[in-house]
Fold this protein.
Amino acid sequence: MPTGSDNGQTPIIDMLKKCISAETISFHMPGHTNSLGFSDWLRENALKIDTTEFSLTDDLNDPGEAFRTASCLAAETFGAGMTFFITTGASIAVHASLISLASPGDIIIADRKSHSSLLNACRLYGIKVVFAFIPDIPELINEYPDAALVFVTRPDYYGKADDISNIIHMSESRGMPVVVDESHGSHFCFAPALMPSSALSEGAHVVIHSAHKTLPVLTQGAMLHISKGFLRKKPESAKIFAGALKAVSTTSPSFLIAATLDHARALMSTKGNSLISNSTEMIRAFHSMLPENIRNCLSSFQGDPMRICITPGAVSVDITYMVERLNSEGIYPEFYDLTDIVLICKFNNTEDDFRKLAGVLTEVYEESMSDKEQIERNFVDFSRRVHLKDKIIEILNVSCRIPFSPSESHFKSDGAESIELKLSENRVISEPCAIYPPGIPLLIPGQIIDRNLISMLTDLLSEGIRINGITETSCRSSAEIPRFLSVFI
């Protein structure tokens, strides 16, 4: 019989109760906005339809009529030739795409701002990768004409949607498929006059949607789309992708999550344009409520208009204080980094939500402008933060244009050891290191640490920036340099 101090405690439930016990305004994923994006029937019956495969249901891994029909409707709605429902997250779609289109030993070309799931897939399946930022990918296509595929992330976490038409055109002319991680852009196709162009409309061959990020879908709800053109050229790809997804997915997919994917598709196909139009109108009205200086440090219309990016330091406002004030008023952004606060606007955000957001931002700005000495301190602090953010871009740049074979480090027979950062010069990294969010690997397995990289990483760590994969031992003081795992060269 179990013993101990359990006493029926439920710490996770207790934690989550806080999310619904107070009046909160959500500007973060998931896109269903505290279940408001679901139908009354879904909300009332959610736990009842958490079921499994039996005589009354279908099988997502071996689709019958219900799942085949839902997939066909989704493909038609999103403009794909074939669509797969995924209930275990878009990372699974990344893995399935790579093993469907590349073989062990192949080189792929990837956007340097790709999510860590891409790197993990390369590590597991023996695929080599060479990175570049999106503007430089065309050069890599020329350098590596035999690459198995090009992998692009668009839009990024901040809503920026780069032009990828040239990448798709160049790749198409070489018979090189383009996979687009459009995790944050599942809604683009529903209001083409208001949104950046969708990847499928641009001619991408495979598109991944982490639907729960921007649509009314439960967390882990995702879709993988194969374009009509790619299916015409390679009809066998349908079977290949289906097999790959079956290999990397759970044998117990969630009917509940799949139901919300079906719900979101039906909702957006009938009301998507009007929902987005209403939301963008409210966001424009929100802009007009703000003092001009605060308006000028927003960037919600530089890419995805449903994503608001605030740069408080641009008007000498302390970013940490602004986030604390937002939270104290029950307003929760998606995340903030060194310089920017990112808010994801959802279809169920109301005029009152935006009015309250505008009020808090205005109050913080006016308070900050009343103290000249604080203005100067905030300006100096912002300059420092911009410098640190530049260092992050510089660190990302270090690993560009160098082919990596992450699996060689992952499966290295003599293993890894933990070593102090300051002693790691000329050592080879064995584990990826990343800042979350957005989960872009700063350091890549197989990468060699040099003195300049040690210096830049030390600067970031000394400012209290947490980098997953670089850890401090509990017996050391916080002033000492953390440690990270590396393999012998």
Notes: The mean pLDDT is 90.
